[in-house]
Structures are given as C-alpha cells and as structure tokens.
Design a protein that fits this description.
Radius of gyration: 19 Å
Number of strands: 7
Structural class: alpha/beta
Helix content: 40-55%
CATH architecture of one domain: 3-Layer(aba) Sandwich
Number of helices: 9
Oligomer: single chain
Shape: globular
Strand order of the largest sheet: 2-3-1-4-7
Strand content: 5-15%
Length: 224
C-alpha cells in the first residue's frame, strides 16, 4: 500500500520539519507546491506559462492552476510508492479536487499537528535566523536567551536575529488567518478513518514518533 500523506498544522507547529523527517525515514518524495510551481514556470510548460503570467502581474495563482500542477506532479512514476504534499490543499475546493486526483489510489492519510496558540506565539516570536545568510537557528535556540546572543551560524559565522515577520502582532494575525481559512479544511477531513491528530507540544523526536504511530495505525485501518 502506498503512503499518501498531507500534513496540516498552524504556523509554528513544526509540520515542515516533521514532513521532512517522515519523508526521509520512509523514503517518500516530499512535494512542495511552491517548488513544483517554480519548476513548471522554469520549464515553460503550458500551465507554467499561465502561472507565470499571473505571478508577473502580481496576482495570486488560482485554484485551477494549482490543481493542474499538482495533478501533473502526482502522475509521475516516483510517487507510486506514496508521497507527502506540502502546502496543498489549503482550501476545501482544493481538497475536493485532490480527492478526484486520488481516485483509484491508496487513500490519503491526513496528519493534523495540534499546538495551543499560546505555545505557537512563544515559538514564533522566539524564532531566530542568521543575519548573514538567513539560515534557521538550531532547534532550542530562543530569542533573548544568553545562548542566542553568543551563538554563531555554522554556515557563515553570522549572528542570529528575530525574523521581521515574527513580531507578536504579526504572529497573532497569521494564526487568526490560518484558523479562519483552515478550520473548514480540518472539518472536511476530520471524520475520515485516516485523519490523525498528533500532539505538537512534545519534543521533535516524540512528535515524530507520534506521527509514525498514527500513520501506521491509519494504514492498519485502511488495510482491513
């Protein structure tokens, strides 16, 4: 059975990190909609040219363009054993289209990483990046701590600073928008036997273990 996954979770929940970790552990391609969109534009495909025109005009790429690009990517041979989608779907309309794409394949397993807002604000306002090269600070390094003030980037030797978009006001607005836009998507998937809730407040290793257990349990349900 192929492992076909999508990860849900608010900003700061760690879904990108956990998706990378799971993809590496299970040998699955992680498919970022941003990456395949840029790839289609660079390749000059018909759908890529449509997306390029929208992007150059400063507009948002429409659902139909994103859906077609995802459909093309999921038709490739490297996803026969499964995949992890990163950044798609973001709306119920996209989720419905993905269900159509998935007909005849192994079911989607949906992993929802849940973290309370107070913890998300703490994490996001404490995130640091290198002032020189933009690399993320090591896990556990928090803004304002003595360790953060002394630490230097392993790539370029630069110091670590807070991201410009990680002020508390901006963070709370991002979380509000996520809740408004994504709650219908969570409700769309919630009643499926392959919908998994994982506690994202634990250490990254324990979250990874929780995801692995939840996915294996979902595979057991669909395999019965």
């Amino acid at each position: 059975m192929a492992l076909n996954l999508i990860f849900l979770g608010p900003p700061g929940a760690g879904k990108g990190t956990q998706a990378d970790r799971f993809a590496g552990a299970r040998g699955l391609p992680k498919i970022s909609t941003g990456d395949i969109l840029r790839e289609a534009v660079a390749a000059g495909t018909p759908i890529g040219l449509r997306a390029k025109g929208v992007m150059e005009a400063g507009g948002l790429v429409s659902d139909d363009i994103l859906i077609e690009i995802v459909n093309e990517r999921l038709a490739r041979a490297d996803v026969t054993g499964g995949f992890i989608l990163d950044g798609f779907p973001r709306t119920v309309a996209q989720a419905e289209a993905l269900d159509g794409i998935m007909k005849g394949r192994s079911p989607l397993i949906v992993v929802d990483i849940q973290v309370p807002e107070v913890e998300l604000v703490r994490r996001l306002t404490g995130r640091l990046i290198c002032a020189g090269c933009g690399s993320n600070a090591p896990e556990g390094l928090v803004g304002g701590s003595p360790e953060a003030l002394q630490a230097r980037c392993a790539k370029c030797g630069g110091s670590f600073v807070q991201r410009a978009d990680d002020s508390e006001a901006v963070v709370r607005e991002r979380l509000r928008v996520y809740e408004q836009n994504t709650k219908p998507l969570v409700e769309y998937y919630r009643r499926r036997p392959t919908f998994c809730i994982v506690d994202g407040t634990l250490s990254p290793v324990r979250v990874a273990d929780g995801i692995a257990s939840a996915v294996d349990a979902a595979v057991g349900v669909t395999g019965r």
